């Protein structure tokens, strides 16, 4: 049965590629003009002796009798054979047609004449030969060979032209249309030129010739391999339009195409549709579906597909296990990844390096560096050789977990194994050394990286950020110069780091100079650049200049980030412009800014520092109404504010509310409450909180201890204060100047001068220098106890240290000498006070008139803490 043909009445001239003139496109063959009266003997001799005819490939070719030319019984061809030896297209076609029932002889004849002088190559001749050969099992393979050779040449016509001729020749010479020749043609184009193969396929469809599915799959394979995914989609859509949905190979190919496009959801949907149609799918298709599920990621689906594979008796490949294990590690489900690893091993698969490295990374992400290193040692014992990816994972995560020593060991081991470290490894190590405060090791590694040529701009940025973040401007500038000398082009991060360094050093002029250098080099400042500048101006207290920078940023169409908004609000609150910060927040919210806890905390803290507790509480309520939950910092700030304003009841209410929301008080929150109770001289309440702090697993710091010590001092319980001092020493908490000053004051108040000066000596031995408050406490205690000579020595010590006594100190000394009846020394001290430029106050004159200071046993406004 013949395939349906479409009539091709004409062929466009531009498609006649590589043909000298249209005459080579055959119309109806004409009878040749006789030229040689007896060509038969010569023809037989030529065919049987021609070296271009491979006799082994054609059966029966060794018998000259089989090449007997047509006899005169055929009136159409006898004249041409007996009278004309020309090799015109018409003559050759007619001769081939004579042997249409003997394809082997036809092929021999074609090979005989194709290299003869005078033979004009013609696509029509070739098409006639293909139709003759394709119908015989003996010559069928020769069609593939001839088409491959023909298509590979540069003189063939366009695919559509070739198709038109094949169809036209079949019609004119009454050949049955054999689909194999078209399939072979399509396959030949796939082997040589993929675009021509697509044109050939489209031409076949236009002529209602449907390629066999295996050949369509071959074309699909080539398109997918060549990443021509759009063309693969078009091809498949045309297949569907003619009722061909393909087989499992087609499904596999299209799923791969979708994955190459980065569309795993389409691959998964394609798989589900094929499965729903009842198509018989194999393990390879399931493996691709699992890969798609892992890329989405939909690991529940991946798990279900794996179980289906096992239920069907299929063993997942090592690659499938590797993909799924890696996906579970990436999702953070290490337990399932380890279970799948065990399943893989139970299926007879070996633990490969990719799986082992994935599991090591999984352990590292959970902070279990020990298990990761154990697995690393095990794979080495089992004969697996770690690669640079394995080492990179371990080096990076050892550095992240502050185990830079082990990271450097791995780095050294890596080099001993002739595995060249990457700049990523070096950068991780430098960062690790810096975080471990090992600047020397970091610098040595940096120098090594620069000398070996491995360092890049990110290597410089790591060290540059460290210097800039620590305010080491000189070191940062030296590194910058070295970077430029080595031809390393700075990045945005490089410039931003330098701007940060100058901003933190308070040198905003230099920070702006760096911005100018950025612009000169054609690098536009980013939102981070401007935000760093704003933060620098705010820290210098220059809110106006900071807001000018903000306006400049908006003026050049750079959108502020949430970080920018928070910097502005926090900066305004810190410079005492909290009301302005609150107004600014409302404007930012109108522009789409969504405040976070940090934002409200900045404003609340600003109002607390200004003593505006009602405003702070109003912002707190506003925060809650916006749907944000206050955090520990919010409550701690409010508790601290209420305690400082002697509103302990509201502070305790905040504490209760905090606990009711499941938030635990931190040390600063406990500290604020304890300090509030101490100021109220409610030491029982303070002690309860102090015990609670320890019961919840927190450790009191020096601030908490100082509040408790000051509280006990104020209620004249110096023994309890000294016990706390001993506890501090036992727990390794360093006492500071405030601790010693408070204790000395308490001991002096009780007349325990010896113990007070023992503590003073202990303080000096620890390198803690007294300040004006400490000296005031000492002089007040000594004078009150009549120790005027020792008081004079303290005054001389102050003079040696260049510390000018305060009016309060002079008042205390003058009162002490009046009390002892030493009026001359009292007046001398008064004159000395005037000579120092100090202005006597009401207490001074009260001493001079009445001979005593007001409240002799108090410090009259001087805080010891």
TrEMBL record:
Q: What are the record keywords, sorted? A: Repeat
Q: Where is this region: Disordered?
A: 26-84
Please provide one cellular component term from the Gene Ontology annotations of this protein: mitochondrion
Q: Which GO terms describe its molecular function?
A: mRNA binding
In residue terms, where are the PPR repeats? 247-281, 282-316, 317-351, 352-386, 387-421, 456-490, 491-525, 526-560, 561-595, 596-630, 631-665, 666-700, 701-735, 736-770, 771-805, 806-840
Which PROSITE patterns is this protein grouped with? PPR
Record-given protein name: Pentatricopeptide repeat-containing protein At3g54980, mitochondrial-like
Native organism is: Herrania umbratica
Q: What is the lineage of its organism?
A: Eukaryota, Viridiplantae, Streptophyta, Embryophyta, Tracheophyta
**Gene name in the database record:** LOC110410557
